[in-house]
């Protein structure tokens, strides 16, 4: 192993053992992203479920938003480490954003709906007050409405609450009709057909109200082997944080105008070349790895790092980690697990291409990333006796103390 790789691995492995604390006041203002599934479509595997993550923008009533919803997502809520601060509840999810229609990103939607929507009464004569407003909104590409409607129908699913699906449509897409009303599922409310603007983007197509003001959501196209979206969640007022979450991609450049200078970029890294001195079973050349990744519409860590550099991201997290037998990168179980070196190598490749002096992180299931709001002077002074107000949250600390947070590293 080269000295450079070895020193990088040792340096960052040591840093796993450092902790970073956030005060309760800081956590009350922080935006967080919790990964419920971090593997590519070859999964799930022993340590990773397929794609889904939960966004906490500190919205009114504790509402949460979700991006992608793979099979098994509902169960992942139950599998959160018991000492997780701010335990996430499926019932709190009010909006779901689906990047694309591949099965590893949307097959968990119906089980989530069955969990979130109240079941019908067993007594046919009982009066059940049905809320005419949908309890959950789903946003996604053309076809998502048909997908949800068909499976709700075919699984004979009936609920007391309503749901709605809005489609983000491109000019050549065929919308799924909601008219006449008989075509809809009985628990469905007619959704909006949201056509992209002339430059191909969906700007501010939905909104949430947080403690700081409005949180706006934009979407734009990214290149994958089938139509795919990236989502941008941004605060309208100060501190104007911006979180960019991309679906699967081999080239996200079409979305660049929407996502410059984000506080956090989440980018896929499905495949990676791992030198044989780190993992003898990985025998493919760097060229072969790149060729295969591109041919399947995916990225390698360097591409994620280069994109983070292009848009000037403040933090970079790698997601959709390879899970097929020739490119399998399971999350290590503990800090002495030799597979940790593989993950560190993936992070090293992205970190070098990023060139920001900060450390890219590869996501693992239940990892929580904190995007804090800058502290005001008065808050800083109030925090003189921080030790008494600390929420006990642990963090992996990157090169400059980046607050990647989890109560306990699970791997
Ligand atoms: Zn995928
Ligand atoms: Zn895909």
From TrEMBL:
SUPFAM superfamilies for the chain: Metallo-hydrolase/oxidoreductase
One GO term describing the cellular component: nucleus
One example GO MF annotation: 3'-tRNA processing endoribonuclease activity
Highest taxon in the source lineage: Eukaryota
PANTHER family: ZINC PHOSPHODIESTERASE ELAC PROTEIN 1
Official protein name in the record: Ribonuclease Z
Organism whose genome encodes this protein: Mycena sanguinolenta
